[in-house]
Amino acid sequence: MTAGVPCLLMRGGTSKGAYFLAEDLPAEPALRDELLLRIMGSPDERQIDGLGGAHPLTSKVAVISPSTDPRADVDYLFLQVAVDRAVVSDRQNCGNILAGVGPFAVERGLVPAGEEETSVRIRMVNSGDLATATFPTPGGRGEYTGDAEISGVPGTAAPIVLEFPPGDRKLLPTGNVRDMIDGIPVTCVDNGMPTVLVHADDLKVTGHESPKELEVDAALADRLRELRLNAGELMGLGDVSDTTVPKLTLLAPPRHGGAITTRTFIPVRCHTSIGVLGAASVAAGLRMAGGVGTDIARLPDGDRIRIEHPTGFLDIESSLGTDTTGLPTARRTAVVRTARKIFDGTVFPRAVARPTGGHR
């Protein structure tokens, strides 16, 4: 790898990640992950010797390839690269990085661009779910400038509409609208991202604190850790001690005209906004009678729900139906995001560490 690896660095939604063609990375997962750790600069809390930005939101990777699924144009594998640990996880999706997959597919010639706009059908390899990204391509070229604005990102950019068809997964992994974990009522919901909804005041916080204030609360961190581990077992995810799912989202009354206020943890770092698929799960949870948060939510007429987060809000279209047993199912989920190409070039990974044995 002394010649480097072709890479496109993009902001996708409120995250930033390195996008690669699968053919440019080792096919063997262990070798691929070892290379990505060196590219991103992990493990190191500053990621000073790599592309990572010293935060889970800026230490992400997308691996794209032509899809063998007739329902999709490309396959998208999301990898979360830990900052201070030598860990690369494929146990979750990322809806923000998803926003850049369509433009990347056009940039790399995997999908031909339309003269006005392009739709790219995407299979999310991590879960098998599908999504369609539609974005402007005037004159058959990618367009990143526009007037779409999303909270947590300065300025404006071209809109990217992400639509998620209903999947086969159970919206309620436990089969219940409400469960009790360690004496705390929760709603475990999965509308693209396994998420645990909990009242902020049940964890002795308001839910309106800043992410930094919440992250220094040692008692809260301990409580969140136990909740997440127990929720993972309850949701059929097994031992989640080395993963970032399920997400924990604290709910509080809205303050700025939205439906709900959220604080989401990944897993103990507090998200400065909210992930797309996490927001989809929150919105679905708020649509369920008796779910945690429905008593404090201010739901509008229509399908659009505005979810408040630490740096603004996210609007998401969400509607539910019911299956043959009467349990709720997702009917429609859609959101507008933006993405921007930051650089396209070659990244040079840190050299493989050599055993230390002193000098001769």
From TrEMBL:
Concerning SUPFAM superfamilies, the annotation shows: Diaminopimelate epimerase-like (SSF54506)
- Reported EC number(s) for this entry are 5.3.2.8
Q: Name one GO molecular function term.
A: isomerase activity
Keyword NADP listed: no
Sorted alphabetically, the keyword list is: Isomerase
Per the record, a Pfam family? PrpF
User: Please, which domain of life does this record's source organism belong to?
Assistant: Bacteria
Which major enzyme category is it? isomerase
The cross-references to InterPro entries, in alphabetical order and at most eight, read: OMA_tautomer-like, PrpF-like
Leader peptide range in chain numbering: none
Q: Does the keyword Cytoplasm apply?
A: no
Q: Report the sequence similarity comment from the record.
A: Belongs to the PrpF family.
NCBIfam families on file? OMA_tautomer (NF033377)
| Protein name (database record) | 4-oxalomesaconate tautomerase
Supply the source organism's classification: Bacteria, Bacillati, Actinomycetota, Actinomycetes, Kitasatosporales
